[in-house]
Amino acid sequence: MKARKPTDDSKSRSSRTSRRRFAKAVAATIAAAPLASSLVKAQRPTGTKETPAPPNPQTAAQGQQPSPVAEAYAEVARRRFGDHLTPEQFEQVKKDLQANVQAAERLSTVKLNNSDEPDFIFSVE
Amino acid sequence: MLSEDILYSSITELGRLLRAGRISPVELTESYLDRLERFGKSLGAVAEVMRASAMKEAREAEREIKRGRYRGPLHGIPYGVKDLLATRNAKTTWGAEPYRNQQFDYDATVVRRLREAGAILIAKLAMIELAGGMGYNQADAAWTGPCSTPWNTGYWSGGSSSGPGAATAAALVSFSIGSETSGSISTPSAFCGVTGLRPTYGAVSRHGAMALCWTLDKLGPMCRYAKDCEIVLRAMAGHDPLDASSQDPKYDERKGALAGRGAGGRKRSALRIAVMKESYEKAQPEVRANFLRSLEVLKQAANAEIVMDVKLPDFPYGAAVGTIVDAEGASAFRELIESHQVQQLRAPRDRVGGYSAMLVTAVDYLHAMRLRAPMRRAWKEMFSKYSLIAAPSRSTVAYPIDKTFEQAYPNINASSPIGASNLVGVPGISIPNGFGENNLPTGIQLIGPAWSELLLTEIADKYQQSTDWHKRRPTINKSEGRVQNDE
Fold first, then answer.
1. CB-based contact (8 Å) between B366 and chain A?
2. I need a labelling partner for A73 at 20 to 30 A (CA). Which of A65, B170, B216, B297 fits?
3. Mean pLDDT over residues B214-225, rounded?
């Protein structure tokens, strides 16, 4: 990606106020969704499922109803990208977001210590 | 034109013929270019044939070899690269419509190093758009259209290094360079019946390669012979100041990489191969049978002890690799997604995959990245007990081109070490081991600890000395698009 420039986020900036307001709603919804989380944990697969290369967690959630958390993320997606998505595409994005939520739940089942750093090294020259 | 027998020869054999003056780089390059032009497009394997620059490099190689300046085993050998590597002499499209006219004014480090070794770049080979980072679920996910395996053109070559797989299998090139984030070398190697080596993370510079996922992307050779993979890797590997993740390989150069490289420092006779639990039991019947036969061959050929049904360390690999690919891929292609040019991609699934990836939270990404250190420690511990991990390269043969991936083989439900081994950055090799449904090839993958590439190629070479699957050739009938197994 050497040839590419950093993205100008001015478009996002213009909608910052409304997004900030909406973030609160998302936080409230997340706090109210333990049932969905435990459901996802119960469905955690034991193996590493073979997926097309490269893998995409989105395939895991096909056919499942979006959880309240995923619905909240979907609202974020609708506000950020909805004008450019057909209804069918938006439905797919909602399913993908449900998969994101499931993946996050699966990740959080592994407890980490405060001292466990991300597996990359920042260094100064 | 040179005979098919010559064009299907190993790099070692071609080098011997070139050095002895029995064939010339010019006629070898002409012959591969001819095949690229005859079969490349119908297979969907080619983004651009580089005839002019290739012939110029071939004439130069010919002059040098005649003058006695022989650079080594790759001198005068024509090859192709996945179209995500920057090249001065051809466009670099990343397989994606929005980048159809992208032109770089420099060569990727890998291309430069192979040129210095005397290899001749003859084609940019097709690939899945953006290396599959937007979540494709169909073969037709590139501006070049679907790429077929030359063994049966109704079936996919695999991705995302689709062109390298098909072109190498059909001897349109002598070898190729692919890339793997999580399965993109091993999958097309299996579906096309070639030998693909995924090096240790950092062994090969990615300067000039399209970034999908900085902490997972790797470049590696796709060849017909395991020994060829070693030759190409040696020419490519090493630290590059232009790629901070690259480092000089820590290979065991003692004669026979096996010496002293058994599990826990055991001697060669104690080579222990762990068979991954749940990787083969639910695979397609032919995949399973070929895999179990391969283990018997390895037992004899490599004097290996086979330990069945070993569980990988328990981590949520799928969730971690998916979260990391989503977050880094969305960052790498943020401009494409936010400008909605992503909607120009070929596959409907790819047009929307980036939007949800944009909403992966920083905390989830970091949690996945924090999990990689304990994963690496657990794998290191596993490799203190076992020299290598074995599993089928894929649990099925290639997918039909006209179906989505979910529709292809809905009842096959095996596990795979591909995502996990990519997360911990260790090398792997996929080698052909037979045929399954519809005359399609199958493969076995061997995974070793970091910097065990020479061990992997040596074991794979021993396997290939005892079998001839890697020597089988697909018969391409251009007019009918039909192929058959050439026994």
1. yes
2. B216
3. 98
Name the token pair of A52: 């097309």
Nearest CA in chain A to B391: A50
Q: Where are the beta strands (DSSP E) in B303-403?
A: 305-310, 388-392
Judge contact between B431 and B194, C-beta under 8 A: no
Chain B: residue whose CA lies nearest to A55: B322
Predicted confidence (pLDDT) per residue in B432-486, tens digit: 999 999 999 999 999 999 999 999 999 999 999 999 999 999 998 654 444 444 4
The answer to whether B76 and B120 are in contact (CB under 8 A) is yes
| Contact residues for B56 (Cβ-Cβ < 8 A; gap 6+) | none
Kindly report the number of other CB atoms within 10 A of residue A118's CB atom.
Answer: 16
Compute the distance between CA of residue A51 and CA of residue A62 in angstroms, rounded to an integer.
14
| B51-66 and B25-35 helices, crossing angle to 10° | 160
Contacts (Cβ under 8 Å, ≥6 apart) of B64:
B70, B71, B75, B118
Write the pLDDT tens digit of every residue in A59-117. Answer: 444 556 789 999 999 999 999 999 999 999 999 999 999 999 999 999 999 999 999 99
What single-letter amino acid sits at A7?
T
Residue type for position B37:
E
Question: What is d(CA B408, CA B92) in angstroms, rounded to the nearest whole number?
Answer: 31
| Tokens representing residue B231 in the block | 């030759």
User: Distance between CA B411 and CA B284 in Å, rounded?
Assistant: 9
Structure tokens, A17: 């106020």
- CB atoms A119 and B414 under 8 Å: no
DSSP β-ladder status, B218-223 and B305-310: unpaired
Which three-class secondary structure state does DSSP give residue B272? Answer: strand
d(CA B318, CA B351) in angstroms, rounded, equals 22
Q: Which among B104, B211, B360 is the nearest to A100, CB-wise? A: B360
Q: To the nearest whole angstrom, how far is the Cα of A37 from the nearest Cα of chain B?
A: 15
B contacts of A10 (beta carbons < 8 Å): none
Report how far residue B56's alpha carbon sits from residue B183's, in angstroms, rounded to the nearest whole number: 35
Residue B284: HSE in the Cβ half-sphere, 13 Å Cα cutoff? 22
Helix, strand, coil content of chain A in percent (nearest 5): 60, 0, 40
